[in-house]
Structures are given as C-alpha cells and as structure tokens.
C-alpha cells in the first residue's frame, strides 16, 4: 500500500477530479483480464528464467509473454473487447511483484483499433494495484492515466487468474492558439534583419552624477498566498463495455 494514498477505483476518480484539467472529460473503461497459464491453449507462456528462479519463493527472474483476452464480464465465455499483449516478469525477491509492460489492444466497439500502453509494478497479492498508462494510439494518442487492477479469481495450484481492471484516461486537451509577435524584415546593405513589432521604446533613466541615490526597502506584510479552488465538477463521460453473457 502506498503511504498516505487511498487506493481503489473510486479513490482514483476522486483524485482525478482535483486535477487542474478536471473540466476535461475522462474516459472510464472496465473489463476483465484472463491470464491462463495451463491447458491446451495458454494465453501466457514462460519465455525466460534465471538459474535461481526455481529456488526463489517469488519466482524471481521468470519472464512471460502474454496475449490475454479482455472481456466484458469475468466469465470465460464473456464478450471479448480486446487483448492484453506484452510481457510481465517477476522483479521482486521479497514479495510477488511483477514488472508489467503491455498494451491493451481494443478489438470491439468504439475503441476498435486503438491501444493503451501500461508500464508499472504489479504486487499481485495486494488488493488494489495501480499502474500508469504511459501512452496510446488511435483515439488514445498521447494518453496518460491510471489502470487499477484487482484480482477477481486466482487458482493457487495452476496459477490461472482473472483480474478486474478499471482504467481512467483524460481526453486530450483542446488546442489553444497562442498569439505570437509578428516580424518585419528590413533589408540593409548586405544583411537582412528581422525585428519584432514593439509598441513602446525603452528610455533609460537620466542619472545626475552629483546625486547619491538612497533607496529604502518598503516593509512588506508576510501574508499567506491565496489559493483559489476550482469548484467546478469534473465533466466525465462514463464509458463502460456493456456486459453480455452467452
């Protein structure tokens, strides 16, 4: 647990509402991640391990490649909305902690063809695990956000797992045109000089060399800075894949 930080999907949403870009719409995604390491068609396979992995209580050094289905509900036959493709590896010798490097590749609905990239630490036996969204493609270009994972089901014998994910990603901020000073090009004899338009010219003060200036520092009251809170509520768009069961 992060010291002094409240975890969980609701806590993350509350934190987002306090950000300077709180007026932006926030896309919220909810799905289930199926990590199957056994059977005829595993979706996660070990591709590397160290000499000490078998002796480690945390399987330190083990690396797996994944192509895990993402579904609307936790049931294995639930509608697939995408895939989690990438790698994870055991990167902690003291507890079960994975380094997650993967893409959420959406294959259904309005986000079909778009991706979100995740890079973070996943202490799998914690109730809630936060991992950063560090980028994306398609609708999610330049995405930044938070993916919160919570184990829904885990088989201690086989290692198969179903994990619930809540993802929050602010939509890109609208572009703002910033006025820039226009420039005039004046032709000199052999040199072109670009000068910006200036409304007023600086005139240096006239100083009498016979007069010694005396400057007294004004006493300034040490008042606390005024903080203006944004009271406007977050304009969020709840986007969730509808549950469908076969």
From TrEMBL:
Compartmental location: Secreted, Extracellular space, Apoplast
Pfam families: Dirigent (PF03018)
Main location: secreted
Any coiled-coil regions, as ranges: none
Region (Disordered): 223-246
InterPro entries with a match to the protein in the record: Allene_oxi_cyc_Dirigent, Dirigent
One GO biological process term: phenylpropanoid biosynthetic process
Keyword Secreted: yes
Keywords per UniProt: Apoplast, Secreted
GO cellular component: apoplast
Domain of life from the UniProt record: Eukaryota
Keyword Secreted listed: yes
Subunit structure: Homodimer.
Family of the protein in this entry: Belongs to the plant dirigent protein family.
Job of this protein: Dirigent proteins impart stereoselectivity on the phenoxy radical-coupling reaction, yielding optically active lignans from two molecules of coniferyl alcohol in the biosynthesis of lignans, flavonolignans, and alkaloids and thus plays a central role in plant secondary metabolism.
PANTHER family assigned to the protein according to its UniProt record, in alphabetical order: NUCLEOPORIN-RELATED
Protein name, UniProt field: Dirigent protein
């Amino acid at each position: 647990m992060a010291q002094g930080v409240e975890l969980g999907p609701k806590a993350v949403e509350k934190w987002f509402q306090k950000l300077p870009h709180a007026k932006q719409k926030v896309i919220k995604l909810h799905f289930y991640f199926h990590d199957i390491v056994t059977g005829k068609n595993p979706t996660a396979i070990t591709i590397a391990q160290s000499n000490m992995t078998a002796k480690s209580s945390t399987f330190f050094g083990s690396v797996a490649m994944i192509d895990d289905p993402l579904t609307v509900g936790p049931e294995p036959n639930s509608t697939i909305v995408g895939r989690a493709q990438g790698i994870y590896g055991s990167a902690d010798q003291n507890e079960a902690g994975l380094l997650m490097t993967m893409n959420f590749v959406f294959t259904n609905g309005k986000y079909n063809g778009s991706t979100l990239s995740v890079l973070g630490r996943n202490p799998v036996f914690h109730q809630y695990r936060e991992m950063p969204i560090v980028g994306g493609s398609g609708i999610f270009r330049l995405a930044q956000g938070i993916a919160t994972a919570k184990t829904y089901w885990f088989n201690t014998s086989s290692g198969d797992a179903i994990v619930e994910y809540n993802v929050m990603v602010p939509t890109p901020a609208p572009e703002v045109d910033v006025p820039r000073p226009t420039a005039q090009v004046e032709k000199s004899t052999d040199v072109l000089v670009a000068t910006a338009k200036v409304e007023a010219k600086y005139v240096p003060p006239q100083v009498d060399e016979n007069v010694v200036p005396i400057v007294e520092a004004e006493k300034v009251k040490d008042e606390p800075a005024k903080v203006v809170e944004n009271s406007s509520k977050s304009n969020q768009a709840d986007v969730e894949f509808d549950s469908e069961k076969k």
